[in-house]
Design goal:
This protein has about 325 residues and is α+β, with helices and mostly antiparallel strands. About 25% of the residues lie in helices and about 25% in strands.
Length: about 325
């Protein structure tokens, strides 16, 4: 761990500061190391000042969302990890004056809870994302989605903060979204606005239930994992194909290292058991990448983000 005294200048801003914070336990894998510094801003102004000071002192920053597609290396992560867990970053509200049901969501808002609330309100547009664990900000960053749609489908605008804490606003036509990708260059997404439409609440709720049921039947949701480990690649014909199918065809179901293993139910899920380490998961991912390439000639790209020391990432 770095010397905590180098972060003393952070103590006078509107943030909760924790040194040597066990952030590995804050991820869905529930394993991994500590953050030298974990900062939880208590206001937008505090967040902006935090970013400004980190930029001024040349400190690497990492944005921690829900930790659903994140693995923290056992050695931990340097710099400042920023968490938007304070209530002020979890709010959602309809802009009733707009007349078109625009829903404004702060980046720390829980995607699943937001979906359930809009379903109860009879608002259509987000239910295709049911069962995807993410915050709104993290979902926008990676254009979260699946078989039924992507978060960008109903997105109308995004508010971001630059590395210096300056507000940057994008309309949807200024952004590019593709499979598990957005072209947002700012280090932090502050909020997003979605255009929803009215529909019978019962119809929306049934659609959410159907999508949940499909995911439950196909994915090991009861196990400890970070969701899909790899992105679905594109084959030689330009068609996107299932990474899970490639992993399965390569004979890798059940492959394990320490407490990490390839799920028998869905080969694109790496699950962990008691005593697992981040290096166990990394080792399994390395094995998958090598054997899938040897068997198919296709190079898989990781969907799980790995944080290690001296690397700057967001999730």
């Amino acid at each position: 761990m770095s010397d905590p005294t180098q972060f003393e200048f952070l103590k006078n801003i509107d943030c909760d500061i924790q040194f040597n914070a066990p952030i590995g336990n804050m991820t869905y894998f529930e394993i991994g190391g500590h953050a030298d510094t974990l900062a939880t801003p208590k206001s937008v102004a505090g967040l902006q000042e935090l970013l400004r000071l980190c930029h001024k002192h040349d400190l690497p920053i990492h944005i921690l969302g829900k930790g659903a597609n994140l693995l923290v290396d056992d050695t931990g992560v340097d710099g400042v990890v920023i968490s938007l867990l304070h209530d002020c970053f979890k709010t959602t509200a309809f802009d009733e004056q707009s007349g078109n049901h625009n829903l404004h969501c702060m980046a720390g808002a829980d995607l699943s809870k937001t979906i359930m609330q809009t379903a109860r309100d009879g608002m259509h547009g987000l239910e295709s994302l049911a069962g995807i664990p993410a915050t709104i900000g993290g979902g926008i960053r990676m254009n979260a989605g699946g078989k039924y749609g992507s978060i960008s489908d109903n997105l109308t605008s995004v508010h971001c903060l630059s590395s210096k804490g300056e507000l940057v606003v994008y309309n949807i036509d200024e952004l590019e979204f593709s499979y598990r990708h957005s072209n947002i260059i700012e280090p932090l997404i502050l909020s997003g606005t979605f255009a929803l439409t009215s529909e019978d609440p019962e119809v929306v709720r049934e659609r959410v239930k159907d999508i949940f049921a499909w995911k439950k039947s196909m994915q090991p949701l009861a196990d400890t994992s970070a969701g899909c480990a790899f992105k679905n690649p594109v084959d030689e014909n330009g068609q996107r194909i299932s990474a899970g199918k490639l992993i399965d065809q390569s004979g890798l179901k059940g492959t394990s290292k320490g407490g990490a293993s390839v799920s028998q139910q869905h080969a694109n899920f790496i699950t962990t058991s008691k005593g697992a380490t981040a290096q166990d998961v990394i080792s399994v991912m390395n094995t998958i990448e090598k054997k899938v390439f040897d068997y198919t000639g296709i190079t898989l790209q990781r969907e799980v983000v790995v944080w290690s020391r001296c690397e700057v990432s967001t999730t």
